[in-house]
Q: What sequence folds into this?
């Protein structure tokens, strides 16, 4: 072995990568059976091992020939996803709603008009999709118009879970290409994409469960690459389309906007209007299940914010805490967005770091209840990694509570562990940023 920049370099790093790919692909293929047989501890262990493997692959990839290393990484990523492609979704049933919404639209019906259980849609029911739709008896769809267009397009190739997964994987492939493009634009090793491509979160949540967040992440990363090539307006349009799949992508807009440029906000407004236009026959119904969802998840009374929930476990009921927390969190995010938008440093790195921190702050403060919401952070593990992003993307598996098993902690205990770990990681990253800010100009990092 030869030391390179203080790191011991193996003689054949591509072969080591290939061996790791075989091991992680085997673990992924065995994952659903292990999870079913051994309970949630197995899934937690798989995520832990997979995250360690992804991190090591990213470091090892930087030490290898970039063409060889990248080829091994992409082949390994494809193998890991193929291992879960034909399995039934075990961690979420959202994909059945995607197929249903596409089917409803193909029948010429506005997906925001009826709940799946409505008599008007009885003729669309089958045994493969209909029985597995969540909230079928009381919730119209919650997904925004760009997601609805995607569901319609994919289901024209086939109204099945596998076809929908394939559609999401195609979007993810575009997202991986965009991550590589961003890495090259930032003059970083393209093999760093291994950190995303081999990470268990996108593998399980996209290949395993087919979450539409794959398309949002692809559009978010594509918008970033376009922006880095000097086309902020087109980048804003792509980010807006991503936000019309999952709103998280809208956090890119402050990073792309140059102060007082009216064209970018106009492009955003026009994009939103055009996307919603085909569905406006239901009026305000285009918001779908959103209002009820916010209440159902506890965000209206504050219990859904896990920092408030954790505080109440210690101090007892605090009726006003939810409103106060939501207000303070919103103000903090607005302040951060303005700081990013009006930053003096207009370099590519400043934009990427600003977007990364906006995503982190939003996901830390909003405390999502489902791990796939953290997919937006996964690409930044390759671009500008933080301890908080690693914690959320890896330990987020604690939010899955599927199979009971011996000594498996309850959901409240899991959420407490994740919340405390996130707070510790966030404090560590903020400390690091503060130390960087105090470092004299020109000092060695």
A:
């Amino acid at each position: 072995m030869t030391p390179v920049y203080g790191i011991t370099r193996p003689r054949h790093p591509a072969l080591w990568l290939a061996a790791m790919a075989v091991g992680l692909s085997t673990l992924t293929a065995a994952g659903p059976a292990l999870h079913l047989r051994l309970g949630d501890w197995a899934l937690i262990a798989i995520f832990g091992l997979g995250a360690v493997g992804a991190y090591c692959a990213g470091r090892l990839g930087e030490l290898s020939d970039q063409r060889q290393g990248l080829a091994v990484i992409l082949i390994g990523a494809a193998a890991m996803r193929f291992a879960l492609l034909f399995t039934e979704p075990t961690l979420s049933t959202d994909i059945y709603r995607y197929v249903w919404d596409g089917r409803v639209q193909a029948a010429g019906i506005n997906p925001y008009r009826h709940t799946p259980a409505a008599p008007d849609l009885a003729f669309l029911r089958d045994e493969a999709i209909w029985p597995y739709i969540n909230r079928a008896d009381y919730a119209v769809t919650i997904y925004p118009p760009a997601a609805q267009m995607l569901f319609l397009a994919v289901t024209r190739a086939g109204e099945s879970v596998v076809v929908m997964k394939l559609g999401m994987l195609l979007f993810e492939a575009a997202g991986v290409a965009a991550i590589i493009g961003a890495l090259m634009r930032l003059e970083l090793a393209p093999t760093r994409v291994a950190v995303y491509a081999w990470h268990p979160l996108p593998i399980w949540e996209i290949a395993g469960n087919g979450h539409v967040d794959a398309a949002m992440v692809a559009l978010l990363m594509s918008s970033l690459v376009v922006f880095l090539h000097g086309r902020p307006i087109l980048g804003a349009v792509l980010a807006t389309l991503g936000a019309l799949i999952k709103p998280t992508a809208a956090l890119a807009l402050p990073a792309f906007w140059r102060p007082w440029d009216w064209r970018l906000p106009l492009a955003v407004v026009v994009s939103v209007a055009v996307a919603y236009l085909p569905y406006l026959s239901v009026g305000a119904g285009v918001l779908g299940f959103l209002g009820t969802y916010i209440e159902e998840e506890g965000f209206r009374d504050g219990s859904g914010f896990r920092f408030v929930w954790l505080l109440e476990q210690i101090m007892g009921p605090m009726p006003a805490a939810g409103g106060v927390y939501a207000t303070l969190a919103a103000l903090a995010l607005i302040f951060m967005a303005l700081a990013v938008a009006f930053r003096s440093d207009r370099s590519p790195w400043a934009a990427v770091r600003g977007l990364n921190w906006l995503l982190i702050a939003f996901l830390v403060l909003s405390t999502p209840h489902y791990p796939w919401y953290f997919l937006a952070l996964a690409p930044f593990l390759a671009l500008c990694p933080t301890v908080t992003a690693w914690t959320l993307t890896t330990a987020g598996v604690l939010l899955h509570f599927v199979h009971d098993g011996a000594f498996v902690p309850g959901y409240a205990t899991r959420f407490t562990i994740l919340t405390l770990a996130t707070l510790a990681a966030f404090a560590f990253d903020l400390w690091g940023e503060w130390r960087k800010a105090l470092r004299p100009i020109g000092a060695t990092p």
